[in-house]
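Q: What would this complex look like in 3D?
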Amino acid sequence: MINNKQQRLVIATTQLQNQQIFLTDSQKHYLVKVLRLTKGNRFIAMDGKGSWWLSELAENLTEATIIESIAIKTELPISVTLIIAMPKGNGFEQIISGATELGVTSIIPVNSDRTLLHPSPQKLERWRRIAQESAEQSERQIVPTILDPLDFTTSLEQIINDNTYRYICIARGDIPHLLNSLPTEQLLENTDKITNYQPPSIVIATGPEGGWTPSEIEQAKAAEFQPVSLGKRILRAITAPIVALSLVSSALEAKI
Amino acid sequence: MINNKQQRLVIATTQLQNQQIFLTDSQKHYLVKVLRLTKGNRFIAMDGKGSWWLSELAENLTEATIIESIAIKTELPISVTLIIAMPKGNGFEQIISGATELGVTSIIPVNSDRTLLHPSPQKLERWRRIAQESAEQSERQIVPTILDPLDFTTSLEQIINDNTYRYICIARGDIPHLLNSLPTEQLLENTDKITNYQPPSIVIATGPEGGWTPSEIEQAKAAEFQPVSLGKRILRAITAPIVALSLVSSALEAKI
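A: Here is my prediction, written as structure tokens for the whole assembly.
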């Protein structure tokens, strides 16, 4: 059996030749610098079309070898990352449980202008244990990755896949609803005939109590995040990520 | 200012003549027997097209007089009721907060085959206070009604509007996704030209930890509830109602 704590990486099928994966520079950076993998470490490569492979990082750190393919039953078809401003109190544990149940691929806890937390290593360990338990209870194959906390600005730069749909949830203002903004057809199109197909990913950011500051919203827009609404009412910081992920995972699964 | 704790009642515009509302037998039963209103008590009549009226029950208890119309900004266009198996522990308070933030009209806590709770009057009072606080924080105009707990079977009979879309969320099995089952177009169609238009309502039931029993699912089907899925993973009892209401309120608001 695979170790279901493996990290995931989205690859294009063109990167794959004879059971070898040729990593791009940004993928290598992500695996080696962000996830701190080293030679011989394993991760899961996913092609965005439903194929997942257990893979092992080669000695040169720029290639990986496919060990075996993985049968996926309850995972979302594409990678979904949640960037979330860490709330005060214990609310984050609820968010991790709910997001895991909804199929999230990875969670990036961030410090924002309105919240500044420095969780202890024990706290991070606890968060990852909650993700593991929730993954088991919700019958997932894979445990979501919870990254070490980052500054919000830094988190915006963690996107390594060009074909990523990016959203930042905003409480007020006349902006499109997330449900209208998800490109469901593009996400689920039959891609077998497309050469050089880049599988899509989704990244969605939800803010702290009090919301993102105007400066944070501007930074996100500059990083090609689309501002979206989750409805007419003001959601708490612990409700918003669950609502956002409900819409994303339902849009991905309802149409299949 | 209106007292925003008023209960709501869906009426057909044909029931309205010269500022008087002529109640049907089942509406009268609901107001007088279920909600225990008496002459002179006020409620909110909503026509499912965006018009809401503060109304006062007449002495004969079969008519009501319109006091004034109410401007609605952050409420859902139609009535959405959540039937929910009461979970053990404090999870129900989280559900009330989240459901209120998502615009729920009323919540019916039920005892199911797998859960049996008899909340004290103080507990019920606390639940209603949480609904009030969440309504204020999420900037709603109206506080959701939390009914006294019922047996699940009895709750299935509380539907007084013929044009009600009924759903029961089920964790396993090859059943349609809720997002595919919501009749968005019918719910939001332009009804100005339809005579004898019955405004629609939605009722959605989510189960306890361990799920509904087969017998409960059969009872719900007999009461014209449609079994629906919330995705491929198993959701906790406190996550499922938030996911279900996320989809309902987004389907109602995203397309407007």
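A: To summarize the key features: The domain at 79-254 of chain A is CATH 3.40.1280.10 (Alpha/beta knot). The first helix of chain A runs from residue 25 to 34.
Q: Very helpful, thank you.
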